[in-house]
Amino acid sequence: MNDTAIPLRASSRLRVLIAALVSFLLVAAGAVVAAPAHAADGSVGASVTDASTSGVTVQVEASGLPDVAGAYAALIVKGTEGSISAGGGYAAFAMPFPSVSGGATSFTLTAPAGSLDRTQAYEVLVWQQHSNPDATTIYARGDVEITAEQWDAVFGVEPGTDPGTDPGTDPGTDPGTDPGTDPGTDPGTDPGTDPGTDPGTTPPASAALEVFLDDGTTPVADTVLQAGDTIVVKGSGYDPTANVGGRGAPIPANLPQGTYVVFGNFASNWQPSGGAASATRSVGAQGWALSESVLDQVPAQYQGAIRAQWVALADDGTFQATLTLKDAAATPGSYGVYTYGAGGVVNADQERSVALNYVIPPKIAISAALATAEPGITASVTGTGFGSATGVYAALIETGTEADVTAGGGFLAMQYVRGISGGAFGVDLTAPVDQLDRTKTYEVIVWKQHTMPNADTILARGAVAISDADWDVLFPVEVPTVETTVKTATAADGLTVTAAGSEMGTNPGAYVALIEAGTEAGVTAGGGFLAMKYVPRISFETFSVDLTTAAVTLDRTKTYEVIVWKQHTLPNADTILARSTVTITEAQWDALLGKKPEEPKPPVTPVTPPANVPGGSLRWAISSSFADYVTGPIAQGSISVSGGATRSGGQFQFGQSVGGDFDVATGVGSVVYRGSVRFTGHHGVLDITLSDPVIRVTSSNSATLFVSSGGSQVAFATLDLGNAVRTTANGAVSYTAAPAALTDAGRDRVLSGNSTRLNPVSFTIGSASAAPAGTSGTIAAASVTKKPTLPATPPSAEGIVIDEKNLAALGAGKAATVAAAGFQPNEEGIQVVVYSTPMLLETVKADATGVATWSGTLPASLEDGAHTLTLQGSVDRGLAFTLNRAATVIGACTVEGATLKWGYKESFRTYIEGIAKGGWTLTDVAYQYPDYVWESGAGSFDDKTLAGLVTFGGAIAFTGHEGALNTTLANARIELAGDTGFLVFDVTGTTQDGASVDQKGVRLAEFALADAAVVDGALSLDAVPTTLTAAGAAAFGTYAAGEALDPVTAVIPVNAECGSAAPAEGESDATAAVTAVSAPAAAEGAPVWPWIVGGLVVVALAAAGGVLIGRRSRTSGAAEVTTEV
Length: 1125
Prior knowledge:
By secondary structure, this protein is mainly beta. 10% of the residues lie in helices and 39% in strands. It folds into seven domains: 1-193 and 1068-1125, no CATH class; 208-358, no CATH class; 363-474, Immunoglobulin-like (Sandwich), CATH 2.60.40; 481-593, C2 domain (Immunoglobulin-like), CATH 2.60.40; 617-781, no CATH class; 800-886, Sandwich (Immunoglobulin-like), CATH 2.60.40; 889-1053, no CATH class.
């Protein structure tokens, strides 16, 4: 029972991987608070199948459960489900969660001996996942009978029956069963392991607390403090051996948890010993007082988090902590310094506090919009935290010009704000348009009344963000235009059109052409136009030219237009400056082509037309998938309807036109509709127009749909009328939801060889009619956000706040955390950029106070030397630092012969080979579907920190859209940075959206390393999911950050010394087994089971002696291979 515990021989990587698994389970499961389910009348049959000194194993068969996929199950003391908490309340928990099929499940529960009590009765409980067990969530329960013989097998013969095992009969004869005689398992009776019982050590006195200014000697007293100030906290009488227990993570529960040293805003009744909830304690800054000997025993994965706020707690119970003050998130009470037991431990003696005179400086929030009364900008200002002030001045000024402000000027708008109540106010400041300059920036300042604004009187200030859209309204951008008029129209001389251009801007010259409307894609230097002229010199942004074409080149059934485009280019969406439709009157057509003679018609027997035949129409989405593609992030295009067509509810609508010969009696014939739908994308490379659909019904079951495209009528789709709904009413025939299939001609002649799934077609054959009501013009367009350009040099080198430990970590290339204030509240898209050469690392979001925080590592490809880390958003903040990785000895292990497999993104490869009509060229890279494969990677790897860089080289050049897309990913690398890995490339060329790119060392994709392991001399990644980084999105230009990419597979061999177990050191019970259970949710009513499950994962692994890393001990004669679970 009380055999001396023997520590497992395993490196810190064991704890890393176990904790990673636990963390995943806790985060994923603990975030869910499910609504209670109705209890079911299920039944449980449970029987003990094994009993030994290790514990008992129970086989469970449950039935009558509800229709669910899985459930929670546990072995508990009978009737005690109400006492289950994050700290216990169960003897065993079913892992993995039992799966339920057909209302039944079968599983085993193994309870360690330490969780059992032979004096209690036990039962098995089965209940709803993600909930606490109660009358509304329990599915089934059943008793477990444990016999006396089975109890004896666990605990030995019951005390009192065997004098040799009775702890009261002979403490010196059976140390293995006498908890009072085993120094190896009872630290409470071993003077060498329990400083609290060592007669040579005097226990610390009662805890006491003192607070000083940053010099560490001047008492803080009533000194006014605010955010950014530094204080020194000195404590005494804090027992370093106290506070054992708690949640078990990050510090194992059998170690002292230490003491929180906190600056914050706490309620009057804040003490945990009084049962106060965590909501009564709002933390601004925190230190963690802990003995260094305890800290050294904390699992490796938690060391960094604790050391970032660690305060050394001496053996005599004293500590000294330095805290940088910042506002607490909430204000339940008063600001001060507080101490209390860490890790969930309650210790009333360490609950101490010192009140501080902390003030929160005033703040303003600003939103800018177009003024309503007159042209200009109105800045709406909301002020908070202005204390007892009854009035202030507020002004809208050019940024940084407060020194010019006087009573009579120096501002764009100013208000004297009176009657401030509760320290809050709101005011609107309007700047007229004639005082604004788009090239300048503006801000609002608020200062003390009856003073001038300066550093001593300004209470708050904030930038005014004016959107580009608002600037465009105030200062409209001149857009080139062209006006066309018919100058002459005769059969002999042809048609002459005068084209007058204006607002041509800085364009020195342009091409002007008369073309059939919409056919600019066919224009070349040698044709595709009716007339063209080159305007070599544009004076004062205007020009006027005449374009003449022979009458025989014209067709009165078509429409013509004049286009103007940039010289030395071909016309497309990016180069066309202006276009205008040419209006030709009927009289002018007659003059050109003569009057069209009426065709004689054979006599027909008059038929009385049906009265009030409904109007005909065609309603068709064409292809939803194609439309989504056109307006998506790849094509970045738009859809427009014209010529009488409309769109409503996702359907393109065409009215019935004259013509057609559909016979209602026979049910066959054709019907003509009018209108056009145009799809454009890829900056003009994709340009497809479908016009004037015609449906020719050939039988009761089939029809063909024709469209006009490129000047020709094309059989675009076949219609299955047999599977459509046919109705007739008042002489009109309707077909609803007729399945449509794309023809080969439609694919090749209209869609440029690209296949797509067509939507069903609905149409009515009736009388000539306009299209049903809907939207016309541009009805859909891609939302394209222009990527910001990174400044070539750091915009700022100051303003980022970082403590010494994080600065040292940053300089060593390790994980670090930085923060900066002054951004807009909740501002998004703040770019984290490192220089010398600008390299985008990530984008972050500011909190409600405008503070932006970034945690991460610098790219391994960043060279040692002087650099600047910046946060760029509405304001810029920076930090100059020196990178010196050499001092950290990164890459202790040599890597050779590594392999990498990654397909980038399957849908992108399909797109390249399909719509883009492109491909890829490989250099020192192979393609083995579905992956690109790199071999012979070499570099370095640190087994302890899981950091390293492996370089593969090679290049993949993607091309498409006739060269519009030409992007190369070169010099492939795998960068490992602790719990995160990156795929790093040099990205050059032209992106899909037409932008040029030349960026080195881009962290293109990232992946998690939580379950990575060094096994048999190699670190292996097996189909690990990857996502596009913010830096990758900026460089590659096709997808947004966070887009799922193909999984990565890699094998990284390391040399023989890497992954070897260190010589076994004598570990105490405090480090032999760790129960890593994260803190349960603080909100009342949140379920505790996700946290319990996480704890049981570790308990199960520790009990079984299993580990996640396969290693071979090099210190013993025989190979010792650990079990992989």
